[in-house]
Amino acid sequence: MVTNIAAYHFTPLEAPADVAATLHARADALALRGSVLVAGEGLNLFLAGEADAIESFLAPLRADPRFQGLRVKYSRSERVPFARLKIKVKPEIISFRRPGSTPEDARAPVVAPRTLARWLQQGHDDAGRRVVMLDTRNQQEIEYGTFAGALTLPIDKFTDLPAALEPHRDALKDATVVSFCTGGIRCEKAVLWMQADGMDNVLQLDDGILGYFEQVGGFGYDGACFVFDERVALRPDLTPLVDDASDAA
Asked: Which value, in Å, is the radius of gyration of the alpha carbons in the chain?
């Protein structure tokens, strides 16, 4: 079986090109495939390969003080779902282009997957407020699945989110808004921006949909989670929607 990982980490990087070169050499030597984005604000990665090779890649990252606390989501597949290895330096590890959307002193406030599942089951948070799930992903991703009853926005890219959210802001004032995405990076940026823009009732789903699937399964979620590789989407048990030629036929 192939091991697939998804991870991101916000941390100031003074020389992102040097970090990218180091990661490229390490991943290439270990025959890993996938993508790694490096920016002055941190890194965002999706990689696949043999389990031992994945751990050999992660070990130096976890030992590096800059990446202390790196959180990794794991899944398995029969084949490597990436055609090649791509490592790029970008202005952001996910393009949003909004001030206040990069963690500086602390992460955005979170709700743990198991706590969220309890809220969804009881119909409100622990303070009795209604819970609104806010999907920060694009329309293509949402077609494969989302949380039941989630607020979804007609966006094609993440930078469209602020304008698309604007008409809903008044209706969300009495709710606890839980922002979510695939692995956590977009919902974290969205929550930080929303807080900076005056919304004090917002949380991010810790580790995104993939973390929720890992810890809870599919409770309250309809469908699968789209991923940007040849697996197309992951079911709540983290099995791929497409994993061999017959699946794609």
From this structure: 18
pTM value surpassing 0.90: yes
- For residue 136, what are its two tokens? 């920060």
> What distance in Å separates the CA atoms of residue 6 and residue 75, rounded to the nearest whole number?
9
Going by their DSSP bridges, the two strands 71-77 and 130-135 should be labelled as unpaired
Q: What residue ranges do the domains of the chain occupy?
A: 2-89, 110-234
Q: Specify the CATH architecture of the domain 2-89.
A: 2-Layer Sandwich (3.30)
**Active-site residue (options: 6, 151, 172, 181):** 181
- The Cα 24–Cα 185 span in angstroms is 21
Contacts 24+ apart (CB under 8 A), 157-162: 157/95, 158/94, 158/95, 158/96, 158/186, 158/189, 159/95, 159/96, 159/97, 161/96, 161/136, 161/190, 162/98, 162/193, 162/197
CATH number given to 110-234: 3.40.250.10
pLDDT 10s digits, 53-102: 999 999 999 999 999 999 999 999 999 999 999 999 999 999 999 988 99
Other C-beta atoms lying within 10 Å of the C-beta of residue 122: 11
181 in catalytic set: yes
Beta strand spans in 78-124 (E): 85-89, 110-111
